[in-house]
Amino acid sequence: MIRACGIDFGTSNSSISVCDAGQPHLLPIQDGATSVPTALFFSFDDDTTTFGNEALKRYFAHETGRYMRAIKSLLGTELFAETTQIKRRRYGFDEIIATYLGFLRTAAGKNLGQPPTNVVLGRPAFFVDDDAKADADAQRQLEAAARAAGFQEVAFQFEPIAAALDYEQSVNGEQIAFVADIGGGTSDFSVVRVSPERAGLQDRRQDILGFAGVHIGGTDFDRALALARVMPAFGLGSRLRRDGLLAPSWYFHDLATWHRINFLYDPKLLTEIRGVLRDSAEPEKIRRVLAVLEKRKGHELLAGVESAKIALSQADRTTLDLAAYADDICLEIDRPELETAIAGSLERIRARISDVLRMAAIRPDTVSAVFLTGSATRMPAVQRTIVQLIPDARLVAGDVFGSVAKGLALEAATRFADG
Q1: Cβ contact 178:392 at 8 Å
Q2: What is the spatial distance between Cα 68 and Cα 103, in angstroms, rounded to a whole number?
Q3: Interval 22-34 mean pLDDT
Q4: Which domains does the chain have, with CATH numbers?
């Protein structure tokens, strides 16, 4: 009986995989889907909690409740120690993450006959940039949540290493692979020596030539696009009646940040923003942001921005309809505008790729293949950034939502071989 699994607990989406007869495969989680949003919806109508796609459906059906997304981003931050009010009860974020992991474990159990007892969880190269203590805290917090969800044995593997293990299943000779895993919250990179012969070894430390990451991902691209093109229509940079003063900007930065949106629904803050409205020289803009917050539509607004970002991976131009929030406003957004908005993030990604190549002590022309996983690797600007630094390697598109989970299942089969 399979007792161990790999879980890719992602900022935007999560997946589960197990190994059967040495082959990893993804498990259906919800209505046949093997990847589901990392989202929860706490219903105020029937006091139930739903997850994944069902959480999205209930939120976008405008049911009364509390919607949460990007909860992984709270690990290792000061916000993790806070609690959040949901109806008449305050929840700790440790409990919320454990509840979501419990949902994944239960889904796995439905496929396996009983819930798995052991798990290898993916982790980014850094949960928190440039803070070793916060990074270690984040892993401890995630491990505690997994144990609270019912897992008895918990191990970790770096997400870019897990993706390399999945890529290794497809090679027929030894090569140097560069793995780019750019997901919702982080960009992680590894240089790994892979081959069919090495795939069966338990100790692969000598094959990991270098890895590192940076806390930049798809949700940061959402934030940058929202701040550049959407939030000005809702009051970012708008003038107050007092000469030289502008409306506070932090409201809009939080509204553009997935895991901070719920904090804006505090009644005291809404009272504060009504005061800004009275003092605004551009009140029509402040009314828009106030309406979004009063109706708790912050996630819905940012989901529209995310959809525009995704559309611009395929098209040169898209339309973002803001009629539900902003008096029939439609914004035309083109790909160059998106790429200008995320230029700073791309530069940080470029610098980290260069760091990993130096760490591995290899020339770019010795890399045989660049293996792409994580949803943000579908963006043309992201792919160009990688190709500029590693121009001679083949680009290999992996399963953007499943490669890490499958690699974690391979790791789980090795780690818990006797379990």
Answers
A1: no
A2: 15
A3: 96
A4: 4-171+399-415 (3.30.420.40), 219-341 (no CATH)
As a whole number of angstroms, the distance between CA 201 and CA 48 comes to 45
**Count of residues making up the chain:** 419
Token digits of residue 269: 């803050």
Residue 198: helix, strand or coil by DSSP? Answer: helix
Contact indicator for 124, 131 with CB cutoff of 8 Å: no
The pTM assigned to this predicted structure is: 0.92
Q: d(Cα 188, Cα 129) in Å, to the nearest integer? A: 12
* 40 token code pair: 């929860």
pLDDT digits (tens, 9 = 90+) for 98-145: 999 999 999 999 999 999 999 999 999 999 998 999 999 999 999 999
Task: Look at strands 330-334 and 317-321 and give their pairing.
Answer: antiparallel
Give the strands of the sheet with 394-397, arranged side by side: 208-214, 187-194, 175-182, 369-373, 394-397
Whether residue 137 contacts residue 60, with contact meaning beta carbons closer than 8 Å, is answered with: no
The widest CA-to-CA distance across the chain, in whole angstroms, is 72
